[in-house]
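Please check this today:
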Amino acid sequence: MENSHLMILALTDGKAGHETQTKGILTLLNNGNQYEVQWLKTYKVSKLTKHILKAFLPIVSPKWALGFYLDTVQLQLLQSDCALLVSAGGETLLPNALLKKYFQQQGKATKNVIATSLRGIPACYFDAVFTIDDKYKNQKPFIYYPIAPNKQLTFQLEHRVQQAKQNLDCMEQKVLIILIGADTKTSKIGTSYEWIEWIKYLARNYPDWKILISTSRRTPEDFEKDLQQAFTGNPQIALTLVNHGQQCDIADYIYAADLIICSPESTSMISEALVSEKKVLIPVFKSSVFDKELENYLAKFERERWLSKVYIDKMADLIGVVEKITPQKHRMNLLDQFKNI
């Protein structure tokens, strides 16, 4: 689109998973750094308020309605020219649509983009709706791609890879990243014993690789303690145990990786790894259980050879499995999808 204005308003409901998608879309729409980006944190409103605003969306005063979502200082930004509105997540649906309506009433050619299911709001309130649901493929205003843009998306990938390897002091080494989440109500990622035995196998068979392991906020502390007992003091393996107060730069981990092993339920982390154009392995242990939704999610990417499941009880040739994975230039594919907004 033509750069007739110089500002993007990015809405956030404060949820990290939504913000990472918004940042990815901003990277696509602002890849030439031609816009100033202003973030607006929206207030959470009651279900009743949302129901009323949604019901009267065609006739409600957008400036009045936006008072439920934005404070006085934020509302002053509405006096500026705005080229694009961008957000992700259901809590930003109404304020995104209301802002578009407000700028329209001011005679401004503002376009709006959102990444979420529409929850009953007509698609005509948005210029672009990003979705990973293939039933909306080639249906305007929907933009379909199997992986959501996220904060790992960059158009300086080679530079970020080199910088990450330098930050982690592994310029001359192959780097294996292992990202471990936790069981969900319907899926199981494997026991700590199974993970530990496999990691020991990897360390023995690939002694020249640096192995960096990070847990997540959801990982049980007992699981972390088992990892700590097994690997503390091993110079080949670096542990980041999040619930033990340890931190690492996950972005550096992902960019530096020559291979990423990820527990299956961490779909957001898998997306970040894929968008970074890395090879991804999903371990399947004897005790692993994947629900149907997760199985379908992984199968979609397996068919494209963007990742691969590896069945640990068979101790398959890891390198042979990895060689069959073919990462795509997702940044360019996504840029192509967003170019006509």
In short: The two ends are 6 Å apart (CA to CA). The chain has a mean pLDDT of 92.
